[in-house]
Amino acid sequence: MDPKKNLYLNGGIYVLALIGTCIAQQKGLHILEWVCKPLLMITLSSWFFFNSRRVGDRFTLLIQAGLFFSLIGDVALMFTYVDDFNFIVGLGAFFIAQLCYAFAFIQNIADVDGMDGLLVSLLISFGIGTYAFFYAWDLMPHLEDGLGMPVIAYVAAIAFMGMVAAFRFRRTYPRSFWLVLIGSLLFIASDSMLAWDRFRFPMEEASVWIMITYAVAQFLIAGGALTHVLDPDQLRRKQALTT
Q1: Where are the domains of the chain?
Q2: What's the CA gap between 181 and 179, in Å, rounded?
Q3: Residue 236's pLDDT band (boundaries 50, 70, 90)?
Q4: What are 17-66's pLDDT values in tens digits?
Q5: Which ranges in 140-167 belong to alpha helices (H)?
Q6: Left (φ > 0), alpha (ψ -120 to 50) or beta: where does 28 sit?
Q7: How many CB atoms lie within 10 A of CB 161?
Q8: Mean pLDDT across the chain, nearest whole number?
Q9: Coil, strand, or helix at residue 142?
């Protein structure tokens, strides 16, 4: 099998990059972090691209864009120890990444007619929205000057991504739905811990848990997106429409 498409090879590199990032952050080894942390999204983006390029629709392009802006966010956050402004840059990059993912999920929803599973989607999205509201309400008094609006906008964006992911229920294959939804929830959990650790109260081993939940989240979202576009039934339907 083509190594660029191989799940086990790329997954192994991804895990090693995650371990290296966690060690670097715990020990303050900046050079190791500069190598390992960007390698996470580079590996995942490459694997996703080479597996999905024969499809090349709007959905896959938006997921790819989300991975790209996540890489920009990762790089910016590595240098917050140099200048806190890099936190704003990273926040902005991840804000765009969340919107790219959300628009990809909306594209998926728009492609499928019907109202199947609407009640389940509404219940899940209501839970995500409720959590985001009370989370932002608790966080607001503790934010530094000038960070109120950017942080609240980011909370809204990531909650929107999770809520839209919930509306993929019965509009994609079950495996794809659950991978993406769990990935979205872990992304929300990772960013929640990041903000709590920075603004609310320091968390023990915070950097490790933030990175693990973030890395698993991104992998599940990319994997779930691939499951959606590479399912044999989906490919046969697309081929039938173009012949």
Answers
A1: 7-242
A2: 6
A3: very low
A4: 999 999 999 999 999 999 999 999 999 999 999 999 877 789 999 999 99
A5: 148-166
A6: left
A7: 27
A8: 90
A9: helix
Place of tokens 């999205």: 125
Q: 132 near 184, Cβ under 8 Å?
A: no
pLDDT digits (tens, 9 = 90+) for 139-154: 888 887 778 888 889 9
As a whole number of Å, the end-to-end CA separation of the chain is: 28
For residue 137 the two structure tokens come to 């309400």
User: What's the rounded mean pLDDT across residues 88-103?
Assistant: 96
Burial of 194 (0-12, 13-18, 19+ CB in 10 A): buried
Alpha helices in the chain (DSSP H): 7-27, 30-52, 58-78, 85-110, 118-139, 148-166, 174-195, 206-230, 232-242
